[in-house]
Amino acid sequence: MKSNPVKSKKTKPESKETDSVSLDSSVAKEKKPTKAKKTVTKKTNLEAKLTDIPLKEKKAAATKPKEKSISPETKKILKEILNLLKEKKCEDIVIMNLEEVNTYLSLFVIATVASHTQGRAVARELEKNMKQYKLGSGNTEKKNIPAESGWSLIDLGEIIVHIMTAETRAYYDLDKLWGDAKRITL
């Protein structure tokens, strides 16, 4: 009997081929880039509703808020206060419009007097002359304010009048504190 050497040779190369094929397929598997799986997320009801709301488009240029004007009645009262303060020899009178700087304040009038006595006299006269306009309660807490404080504050509703001695005005420096406010000239 003759052995068939061809068959034996064939079997060996076949096994080598199968080994090489299995190696090639494993290398081929390693070289293939894996694709990322796409994940689909479901929107919640709230997110779906929010995406349906149209958004307002922003304006290219920011608009400046309109400056609030002072009413003619208020101007008349301010002129009367200014005249009274000048008549009573007050110095360095300043009128400030605080509407753009602060939401709850409108107008400040700041005046300097020479003494505490002059300050009290000016405050009394101012309250007396402003009663006809029924603007505010005036300075109702006179009992709690010491006579030597150097500062009389009169609340006339929209207008607040500060009558101060020079030392008190320099110490509190309301002009600098409210420096952003627009000054009014009458």
Kindly describe this structure:
- By secondary structure, the chain is an alpha+beta fold.
- The protein has a domain at 93-184: Beta Polymerase, domain 2 (2-Layer Sandwich), CATH 3.30.460.10.
- 41% of the residues lie in helices and 16% in strands.
- It contains six helices and five strands, in the order αααββαββααβ.
- The chain has helices spanning 5-31, 45-52, 72-87, 116-130, 166-172, 174-177, and strands at residues 91-97, 107-113, 151-156, 159-165, 182-184.
- It has a five-stranded mixed β-sheet with strand order 3-4-2-1-5.
- β3 and β4 form a beta hairpin.
- α3 (72-87) runs antiparallel to α4.
- The radius of gyration is 44 Å and the shape is elongated.
- The model is unreliable at 15-23 and 60-65 (pLDDT under 50).
TL;DR?
The protein has 186 residues and is α+β, with helices and mostly antiparallel strands.
Brief descriptors of the model:
6 helices; elongated; 5 strands; 5-stranded mixed beta sheet; alpha+beta; Beta Polymerase, domain 2; single chain; 186 residues
Largest sheet at a glance? 5 strands, mixed
Sheet with most strands: strand arrangement: 3-4-2-1-5
> Strand percentage, roughly?
15-25%
CATH superfamily of the domain at 93-184: Beta Polymerase, domain 2
Query: What is the second-level CATH architecture of the domain at 93-184?
Result: 2-Layer Sandwich
Please report the first level of CATH classification, the CATH class of the domain at 93-184. Answer: Alpha Beta
Tell me the overall shape: elongated
- CATH topology tier name of the domain at 93-184: Beta Polymerase, domain 2
How many DSSP helices? 6
Overall structural class, as computed from helix and strand content, comes to alpha+beta
Indicate the radius of gyration in whole angstroms.
44 Å
Taking pLDDT < 50 over at least 5 consecutive residues as the criterion, the unreliable ranges are: 15-23, 60-65
Q: Residue share in helices?
A: 40-55%
Task: Give the distance, in angstroms, between the N- and C-terminal Cα atoms.
Answer: 136 Å
**What's the total count of β strands?**
5
Order of helices and strands: HHHEEHEEHHE
Quote the average pLDDT: 75
